[in-house]
Amino acid sequence: DETRQRVKFTDDRVCKSHLLDCCPHDILAGTRMDLGECTKIHDLALRADYEIASKERDLFFELDAMDHLESFIAECDRRTELAKKRLAETQEEISAEVSAKAEKVHELNEDIGKLLAKAEQLGAEGNVDESQKILMEVEKVRAKKKEAEEEYRNSMPASSFQQQKLRVCEVCSAYLGLHDNDRRLADHFGGKLHLGFIQIREKLDQLRKMVAEKQERRNQDRLRRREEREREERMGRRSGSRNRDRRRSRSRDRRRRRSRSTSRERRKSRSRSRERDRHRRHRSRSRSHSRGHRRGSRDRSSKHKSSRGRSSRAKSRDREREKSSSERWHESTNGKSCPKRSDEREAGEI
Asked: What spans are recorded as compositionally biased (Basic residues) (predicted)?
């Protein structure tokens, strides 16, 4: 119990056929072909967990269950073929016509047995009207069986007809007698062994259909995903080409902008150089003008100074002349020299 509490339904030790309610060990339990206990874990709680989880997503346990049932049915068919060979070896050989008539009797026996088993099942369920209808069909099949037995008896000698002719059931590989009564046939076709094999075979057919449908859906999904990937790749290529075109156009725009910016910078540098040249020329002109102005002012000042010096010298010479004339006049008049005037004359000369 503790190990089962720790085990989940996805574990490899869990029987996948049990989760899908088709394990032969459960179906054939208590019959003549009881297989015993399954080697894997069987738990109804795990089956309930699987049924809940399978509604949300596909677990693909049908593949494991299908492989299990296919191996079991293949083994059953192998036993059926061996039983047929054993009967062919032990029983007397009969002609093809007689064997066909015996096969017809066997088929009618199977129909009677199946109808009786179905009528009993309906009666147990309480559906009496349907059970009565099936019993009426059984009477019709019995009449056909009597006719087939008469034909088979007339085609064979009495000694051979009295021999029990056996047949192997194709469903459960059990032996059926040609002269079995209806009660035995009903017990066989309505028994748990035969119905269990019918259930297993029907479940195997259902699993094959489910697996085929899921594989078809998976293939369609793969094709759809492949188409989507191809479409995305095509769109990616187109977008890549568009991106390349955009990058190229952007690079062209950048080159154009760069060329424009460089041309603008060149024009600006040219205009700056022109302005510098103009400024230099203007400065040179202003300097030359200022130099000429200073030279003119210097010339004027020098001329003014020279004129002033000349006038002062002329005045001083006039004064000296006057002084000298006055001194000579005083000397001539007084006969003496005046030291004061001589000092003043020397200071004026200085």
From this structure: 237-314
